[in-house]
What does this fold into?
Amino acid sequence: MVRGGEDTPLGDAPSAGAVGFLLKMKNSRPEQLAEALRAAADGESVLAPTVTRRLFDTVTALQPALLQTAPTPVPTDVPLTEREIQVLVLLARGLSNARIAADPGLSRTTVKSRVNRILTGLGLENRVQAALCAHRAGLA
It folds into this structure.
């Protein structure tokens, strides 16, 4: 986990093994930090929503070829349920499975299952591709 301020660059953090980036950790509630650490321990990447937005902006500006080969908007022949679309939107906003599971009626296991179904249904490999797909489709 890397901590920083709003203008802190990610720099070498990912190549150094960081799996998350939170802003203003000293202002975070203990349960937020604990949730981020649990998510990281579960192998999830945790990014503050503003960092996620900056990441998308950077990818868009620096790698237009990547976006051209990125998945197109959500195909109509993929039968995503309304709940799966809701999970996709929350995923695209940078929420971890634990944060998505905070919604009443969803467990972490259910969220993981829905994320896997979304990835499989859309022919994607990871959450970043799913988030890009959702943004390109205007869902997030």
In short: Residues 108-122 form the longest helix (15 residues). The two ends are 25 Å apart (CA to CA). The helical segments are 30-41, 49-62, 64-69, 82-92, 97-100, 108-122, 127-136.
